[in-house]
């Protein structure tokens, strides 16, 4: 394990890129998921079908294949993306598909009586959605969204195939240098575990605060 301590700064740099990719992908995936969820709930038949097709494709195909298509396939059509950009785009599109179903289910869980009461008080459809529906839906969406987030944290290891130097890639580079595998794999496993515990704790606190009113 002495080699792990000697190269800890390199491993921590990999952990930083893992967190960066996770947070940025989650941010864009969150926005995309909201758009797709409302498209399926409020859009016309064409918009709904487009949204359903997107969700079906990205939920029905392996994320590894999606990364390959975006990084190695798009250059055939003149679209070349850097490794980090391709990784974030792939993960954002994938997480957006999964979160859109979470958000759609959470919004549908809010009683229609809440919407009718808000409209009867003179609130506009936007005000009803923003002030009445979304706060209640958020409480329902947090637990599955947290699970998706933690899953995404671990799935960032897949972007090592496009040479993004995240946590797994740093371990692979060190293994290639020292010809010793187990200490580095154990080290990154512990790092993933610690990051998952931290995010689980933060999401539990958020869920608890949102549930106080109920």
TrEMBL record:
Its main location: membrane. It comes from Paenibacillus violae. InterPro entries: AA_ABC_transptr_permease_3TM, ArtM/GltK/GlnP/TcyL/YhdX-like, MetI-like, MetI-like_sf. Residues 15-203 form the ABC transmembrane type-1 domain. The keyword Transmembrane helix applies. PROSITE patterns: ABC_TM1. The keyword Cell membrane applies. The chain crosses the membrane at residues 15-39, 51-74, 80-99, 184-204. Pfam families: BPD_transp_1. It is a multi-pass membrane protein. This is Amino acid ABC transporter permease. It is found in: Cell membrane. Belongs to the binding-protein-dependent transport system permease family.
